[in-house]
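Lab notebook, bench 4. The sequencing result for the construct came back, and we need a structural model before the next group meeting so we can plan mutations. Quick request posted to the team channel:

Model the 3D structure of this chain.
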Amino acid sequence: MFESLTEKLNGVFNRLGNQGRLTERDVDSALREIRMALLEADVNFRVARSFVGKIRERALSEDVLQSLSPGQQVVKITNEEMTAILDGGENKVVPGPAAPSVILMIGLNGSGKTTTSAKLARHLKQAGQLPVLVAADLNRPAAIDQLQTLGRQIEVEVYEEGTSNPTTQVAREGVKRATDVGATWAIVDTAGRTQIDDDLMSELEEVKDAVSPVETLLVVDAMTGQDAVNAAKEFHERIGVTGLVLSKLDGDARGGAALSIVSVTGVPIKFIATGEGVDALEEFHPDRLASRILGMGDMLTLIEKTQEAYNEEEAAALERKMRQATFDLNDFLEQLEQVRRMGGIGQILDMVPGMPGLKGKMPSEDLTEKQLKRTEAIVFSMTPQERARPEIINGRRRRRIAQGSGTTPRDVNQLLNQFKRTRRMMRQMSSKRGMRDLMRMMG
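Done. Here's the predicted structure in token form:
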């Protein structure tokens, strides 16, 4: 996320940090670069101008210019101001006084609305709530099938009536079903269009009147930049949106939508979707996202993701294997699966402070689903003895494993070398000296 913007901002901050004392000219020069970086990232020009103006006003105070570390002070100010433009108020979904509380999901076709509805249901279920999904997108029959498939995957009930009845009736009956089963939330997935029109808005107004939602969440595709911002503005003016969900944020290398949408619409971001999986939905924290954009990491989110992926018993077992050097290929495969659940190596490194310095030192930096499946095929083609003691794998065994997995001996060799590097790195990290080295790399 925000890769190009983060890289440019880090370049500006590194130069400021290396200058020692700062002058007004130094600050103005840095702010010109920041403004250009924001505009190139497709940030609304009014938002960029206001943002830079506030930083300049604070950065040129005597306290900052005369401080021992003015460069760090400018970074701190930038972080605070970026948090401010991302913060639109209440960033959590707030239940109503009576159950079930209704969440109305709206958005254009292609924004990821149906998938996001399922992700939200899973998120609420993980928090101990009981959600019911209501399939009220009757313009696209495939949306009903999609929601049912996702509902089975996350084990959440999906209410549907097909496409014969009016949308308002389906939505109303879906909420009634949620009431009957004692659900705490009813998530109503509505129809979208390829563009905003009167028919779409009229239908959404009727559904909203029929189910009286406590939250009306607009799902917008972050990759569309200012188009997403403009769409959000129109939806809010006509329907009245209480929160935003930024989908496909993992593919948004620029960041224009995320950094503009709250200021332009006045509507808070509630969630961000950071991948295609049903678990790739995060509660939105303005300070955490600002920290990620500025390359300062997001350790709180990383800790939360790790706690979701590992329970205490699993973590203790892994640590024991690392210390005793008994980490084998079965464990290696299991850890790759855990990394996949956490969003992949790239997303994990985005949350680590000092990430640019770490990325080149980490194995499997470009881990993809295709590579993971190939790794699984290779390991599954090994005997239990070979997985436990990979050092016994010789040339003959490599050829047999390659043939069984549909790969080449070279692929098998690369995996074994990768495993050796990972085991060596984990053994180093488990030592006190290794932890000191890691902290030094993180600055």
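The chain is about 60% helix and 10% strand.
Will bring this to the meeting.
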